[in-house]
Amino acid sequence: MGLAKLVREAGLTTTAAVVGTPAYMSPEQASGGSADQRTDLWSLGVVFYELLTCHLPFSGDSGHSILYGIINRPPIPPRDLRADIPEEAERIILKCLQKKPEKRYSSADQVLEDLLKLKDSLEKEASAVRKTAEARRETERRLATVLSGEILNSSQVVKSLEPEESALLMNRCFDVLASVIKKYGGRIDRMTGNSFMVAFGVPRRSRTPRRRRSTRRSTCATAWLGSIRTNTSLFRSRSV
């Protein structure tokens, strides 16, 4: 039957007196009309509103100004005060705060039903967010594809050419290799002599910062050139 109706039937209200806190009174109470369980659902809507926004839907400098707002002014939508409030929660609150009782929920069971649906929806959303985060972390932990290779017969090729030609040839080989690696998103892990190791599919967070990566590439380039110069000097000494 509703608390408001019980109070009214008990004779605790009079025409000139207001029983209860004005901010939680319904429009029908404020205007002296009849009250039932839908009046209590209005008050419940006020409590929900206050819990989520830390504000009352109707406030004023005096009880009369509060009652005037309850009767005549619409409440500010909760999401206007806090954007993170779910849309469904706002809908439930505003339905409880309809001025006309027939536009509100007709029973507390209906409110509970919608609240349980909202709870399930929020739990599913939170579960989906957790799964997405776990999948992202798993992706970041995945193993990279490692490619290792060697420039075959490089020593024979170097022997068959003049030192300057062999150095130029090796330099071109390394340039082509570096461009292919860059094109397919690889990262040079190691380069020694005529062999190399490249990592593909390295997670973005695991990648070396740009400055360090460029330094590492320059180090590899220096190693390549050093290897070429060493081979060139050896063949020069042999030719002498």
Structure in words:
The structure is a single chain. Helices cover 60% and strands 8% of the residues. It has 240 residues and is mostly helical. It has 2 domains: 3-136, Transferase(Phosphotransferase) domain 1 (Transferase(Phosphotransferase), domain 1, Orthogonal Bundle), CATH 1.10.510.10; 145-239, Alpha-Beta Plaits (2-Layer Sandwich). Strands 1-3-2 form a 3-stranded antiparallel sheet. Strand 2 (187-192) and strand 3 form a beta hairpin. The termini are far apart.
Give a brief description.
The protein has helices spanning 3-9, 27-30, 37-53, 63-72, 78-81, 87-96, 108-140, 154-160, 163-183, 210-239, and strands at residues 145-150, 187-192, 195-200. With 240 residues, it is mostly helical. The chain has a 3-stranded antiparallel sheet.
Please supply descriptive tags for the structure shown above.
60% helix; 240 residues; 3-stranded antiparallel β-sheet; 10 helices; Alpha-Beta Plaits; 2 domains; Transferase(Phosphotransferase), domain 1; 8% strand
